[in-house]
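fyi for ur records
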Amino acid sequence: MQQITITTPDDWHLHFRDGEMLGETVPATARCFSRAIVMPNLVPPIVNAKLAMEYKNRILNARNEGSRFEPLMTLYLTNQTSQQDIIDAKQASVVAAKLYPAGATTNSAEAVSGIEALYPVFEEMQKQGMLLLVHGEVTENHVDIFDREKVFIDQYMAKIVKDFPALKVVFEHITTRDAAEFVLSSSHKVAATITPQHLLLNRNDLLVGGIRPHNYCLPVLKRSTHQNALRKAVASGSKQFFLGTDSAPHAKMAKENACGCAGCYSAWSALELYTQVFDELDALDKLEGFASFHGADFYGLPRNTSKLTLVKQQWTVPETVTLPNGEAIVPFFAGQAVNWKLA
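which gave:
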């Protein structure tokens, strides 16, 4: 197959950041995605409806002229989040709330410690029909970083799903066979997003031949056996898996230092790379469901009606992207060839 036309997709998990960064990240995403679930881990975090709406307006103002791209806002859960915060957020059309275990990823220091303390909040979310998005890793120092997703499933995720059977839960950016099997064994109220980096790479791509900071993300890349399990999951066509890039921009200098930060900025190549993966798996007929239908259906939102076309044509991801302030970002797959291109 030399080209494929699909319903315009959405990105169900990404990071825009804020300030001058928005002038780069919003147009990059809007070039091929109609909507996006926007993560709330800014500094300070988006902890209430007022902050969410102010951030939404900044994103809308960063769109290119004529763009109809729609940001879908989320709330950052803390131990101070109240049931009234959930009610107010729902009334303001905030679609989901994000659970970060404290210290799990970038800007998560103010997140949740003692997940059971949030059960009244989960109860209100279930009542309001607001989705719970979960960064599923424990953060205790004694747990090996490659095991943190599995331990989180055993200690917390299984219990949350059991105790709140009507709550829609998205297991974000899953990285392991354990997570894929957990989602498939759960009810239709549980789904997962999968990133391009976790489909394309494994931990060898992070560590062999020297540390590659631009492949460093959290949750961290895992063994090839887990990578292959994720590839099998998306190729299955299951409605419980859908596109979420976790595109996360950082300045080049912040990635290439003694304590490089986590995140892959994939906005300029993610859809093309997903298409490449589905092509490799001989599963291009499953791409539209994964990219365009399953997420919208799970969130209870209308499917997009516009279309876009990708052609099988090789191109090279640029080595850097320059921000208005002159800072450089190294995009995911920088300098590497991609076999599919947006027409």
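The chain has a mean pLDDT of 95. thats all i got for now
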